[in-house]
Amino acid sequence: MGPDQILLGNMNPVTVLRGGSVEEVMRATAQCHRQAGKNYIVGAGCEIPRDTKPENVRALAEYARNPAGHCA
Of 68, 52, 65, nearest to 11 (Cα)? Predict the structure, then answer.
């Protein structure tokens, strides 16, 4: 696809985003970012389930605002 390709999401929306902890969401997001590279857009792999904990959605937003503070 080339080095300038932009990639979005790829996090499991059920297992990780709905069923995981805030820490698991942050880890999964950082892993996707490391694997996708600098052109990564934070997001779930599909729709976010209705019963997802608000704190997990906030974790996605927090990572998007400050990826350098979370990507280890």
Answer: 52
What is the rounded radius of gyration, in angstroms, for the C-alpha atoms of the chain? 12
Four-residue CA torsion sign, 58, 44, 15, 71? negative
> How do residues 7-40 score in pLDDT, each as one tens digit?
999 999 999 999 999 999 999 999 999 998 889 9
Distance CA 28, CA 65 (A): 16
Q: At 68, is the pLDDT very low, low, confident or very high (cuts 50, 70, 90)? A: confident
Question: Which residues, including other chains, have CB under 8 Å from residue 15's CB and lie 6 or more apart?
Answer: none
Specify the pTM. 0.87
Within the chain, residue ranges assigned H as helices are 22-36, 54-65
Q: In whole angstroms, give the CA distance from residue 59 to residue 72.
A: 16
